[in-house]
């Protein structure tokens, strides 16, 4: 994956949660049903594949 901001290579890793609530993006403004579930809750750990740019300190995630 190439970073869309700086055009350098990104590291493929995982975004993880403790599994109790999954991983969710919540809008600061607007209704809570506009949330995006990145990874559903699981028994032990929620996981979502993510790409990290060390130069820009940004993470890209498929939802
Ligand atoms: Zn970058």
Low-confidence stretches: none
**Succession of helices and strands:** EEEEE
Strand order within the widest beta sheet: 1-4-5
Query: What share of residues are in beta strands?
Result: 35-45%
Give a quick account of the main beta sheet: strands, pairing sense, barrel closure.
Answer: 3 strands, antiparallel
Overall geometry comes to: flat
What is the average per-residue confidence, as pLDDT, rounded to a whole number? 92
Our count of helices gives 0
The total beta strand count reads 5
Number of self-contained structural domains:
1
* Helix proportion range: under 10%
Summarize the structure.
The protein has 63 residues and is mostly beta strands. The chain is built from no helices and five strands.
Write a structural description.
This protein has strands at residues 11-17, 23-25, 36-39, 46-53, 58-61. The protein is built from no helices and five strands. It has one domain (11-61). The chain is flat. The mean pLDDT is 92. It is an all-beta fold. The strands form two sheets. It has a three-stranded antiparallel beta sheet with strand order 1-4-5, with no helix packed on it. It has a two-stranded antiparallel ribbon with strand order 2-3. It is 0% helix and 41% strand. The two termini are 16 Å apart. The chain binds zinc ion.
Layout of secondary structure:
Blueprint lengths: L10 E7 L5 E3 L10 E4 L6 E8 L4 E4 L2
Antiparallel strand pairs: 1-4, 2-3, 4-5
